[in-house]
Structure prediction request, 327 residues.
Amino acid sequence: MVSRHEDVGQSSPTGGHAPQSWLEDTISHDPALDPVLPQIRRLAASDAPVLIIGEPGSGRELVARAIHNLSGRAAQPFVLLDCASLSEPLIDAEMLGVDGTFGGKPQRKIGVVEQAGHGTALLAEVGELPSRLQDALLRVLERHELVRLNSDEPISVAARAFATTSVDLRERVAAGLFRDDLHVRLATEVLSLPPLRERAGDVPVLARHFVTQLGRATRDFAPDAEALLRDYPWPGNLRELREVVELAALHARGDRIAADDLPDRLRTTSEKAQLPSLRDVEMRHIERVLQEARGNQRRASRILGISRWSLSRRLRKYGMHARGGEE
Prediction:
């Protein structure tokens, strides 16, 4: 089995309940996740394939594990194969197994679909599967059987199939890179995860949850630090948030995590996000010039390099009033 923990939370390669995650605790306070949590519970009662769509680090593996842990298969293995991390033909052996000679050596290997038994097999970034393995996966979904490498004997399999993708599989189908019938089968149930930048209300809750998971004395976030966390776009999603929180908690000197404990990139992004509009820049500059000219519009217009009429028009436009005399 090849496991890539691309999301957040601890994970168990085989059966049993994984440690609780924020999804299972349902601590989210952001409406963006409201439709997702009931869907997780509904999918746990089904045996249909599930396609989980979302950006890397957005919690796709956690969602899959949450569905598995809430299902009747929870006591069975949960096995993950990262389709994007393996070269050919290694991915064939990892997915299907080997019965005979492989790489010049006699070998018998059980692939991830068989390893899952009556549990769940998760194929991460399924859009990267070579065409021959797309054929094999379709056979698993339609006939519940596979054939190991160097063998002609079909083997019955009973695992439930989950898949994740960060690309639009429909575009790959249109480009001839992915089987349309396989996409249809995988998309029997689709769960789409919003990126963290669309769930700003979740960020402080998740950040405190990650601090609690560290096992140290619980620290809260100072208001300025919390503001930076909310304003940052989080391109790495939950994974990046966890890494930032863990590092900040390590550096924090007081009872609370301050803005200075957070990486510089959060402050830089916040400063860029707070750049004033052209309207605000012009208003502030006119105010400053009028102060310098002591409210004299004729003098202020000369400093600004515009006509007295243009200045008066801008003052009316912005609802500003000049103070002082008029030469």
About this structure: The longest strand covers residues 97-102.
